[in-house]
Design a protein that fits this description.
7-stranded mixed β-sheet; alpha/beta; Rossmann fold; about 200 residues
């Protein structure tokens, strides 16, 4: 009998000021703002209700500060030592290269030809001095192979989109355009996902 694949409890980092300004963050190390810290606390409360034994799970985070802050707030809400989790470079946000720090209107104005190519094939488009969603998929495939148990994971919108494609939940070509909310938990299994929010019924498939 084939062992059941581990369940991922995936969290997008809380809000930052650059989220509010609609700036591409990528590998820029931007901290949470006050709302982002509140979102992380709310997710911790939700996981405390959802998980009967959270200490039995693995905890992995992107090494970027906005993800680590989120993880440490979540673990504190679970009455677990905040800093006892692993930071995994494979969960770092996709590198958007020269687009980082810019708003979408600035990107379209500054790089019109590249922006047109991105709109045509966003999954395979490689950002100048950065990477593509397709390249991120490769490192996440290795991350998935290393999973041994159910895992709470804090990452970024681009990484979560790519994970959902890797797990067969959405087509690759749709992944870069999928809205990934903050302040919610994505339960992710092969070909199955469910969004959980404290005050709402689950949604997914």
């Amino acid at each position: 009998m084939t062992a059941q694949a581990p369940t991922l409890y995936v969290i997008r980092h809380g809000e930052t000021d650059w989220n509010v300004e609609s700036r591409m963050q990528g590998r820029r190390d931007i901290p949470l703002n006050a709302k982002g810290r509140e979102q992380a606390q709310a997710v911790g409360v939700l996981l405390d209700w959802l998980l009967p034994s959270p200490g039995a799970l693995d905890f992995a985070s992107s090494p970027l500060i906005r993800a680590r802050e989120t993880m440490e707030i979540v673990r504190a809400q679970l009455t677990l030592p905040p800093e006892q989790y692993r930071a995994d470079e494979r969960l770092a946000e996709i590198s958007f290269g020269t687009w980082e720090g810019l708003r979408w209107d600035e990107i379209e104005g500054r790089y019109p030809e590249a922006f047109t190519h991105w709109r045509k094939d966003a999954f395979n488009f490689q950002f100048e001095e950065g990477e593509s969603y397709a390249q991120a998929l490769l490192r996440l495939a290795y991350f998935r192979e290393d999973l041994k148990q159910d895992t709470v994971l804090v990452a970024h919108a681009g990484i979560i989109r790519t994970l959902m494609a890797l797990y067969g939940c959405i087509p690759y070509e749709q992944a870069p355009h999928l809205l990934i909310p903050q302040g919610q938990v994505l339960m992710l299994r092969p070909e199955s996902f469910c969004w959980l929010k404290g005050s709402q019924a689950p949604s997914g498939n």
